[in-house]
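User: Can you predict the 3D structure for this chain?
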Amino acid sequence: MSDVVCPGGMQLSVEGSHDKGLQLQEEGCDKPEESRRAISADLEPVESGSTLPAETKENKWKLAFRQLIFMKRMNMQFNDRTKNEIELRQQNISPTSLICSVPYFNTFTAEEIKALVAASRRESLRPGETLLLSLANANIQQEGNFCIVISGNLALAKTSVPSAKALRQAALYPQLRLGIGDYFCIHSSSDMKAIAMELAEYLTIPMNVRNGA
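Assistant: Here is the predicted structure, written as structure tokens:
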């Protein structure tokens, strides 16, 4: 004979399975909450560590500033060394090299260049000192002197212009000053003057040497 199932027993079994389902559902709901808490706990140290204290930022700025000052000083020292090397080369440059660097002397023979070198001399001007480019005793037989700037800068102006004004204008306009390698002439018809803007040196060459005078 088949077993007879009581309706009351079926109800109890259903109710029991329903309670187990609810229990599993509640346990499943609890686990995501715990995982969210664990994730948030792991993230909190990272977020707090990403924000640097004000003192740390200030130290970084100070370090960057010190590095900038160091690089600037190194650049200044390099520029000073370069300037010193240039000045040393200028002091050691030969009169022959100076004369041959001027296109005007390209037509001169080797013997004439040698004669000019032998007759040339170095002269210097102190800051503010003036050199008149006209001959004191005008003479048709005199050809004057040819001068090449070796070092420093000279302000070029008319004789009638006050020296202070000429220096200011030369500081503003490069075309009004003579620098290294520039040249000028001293002759009877000149109404110009040269004023030393700093300690300057130039090579002066008497032009009457070519004619055998």
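The first helix runs from residue 7 to 50. The mean pLDDT is 73.
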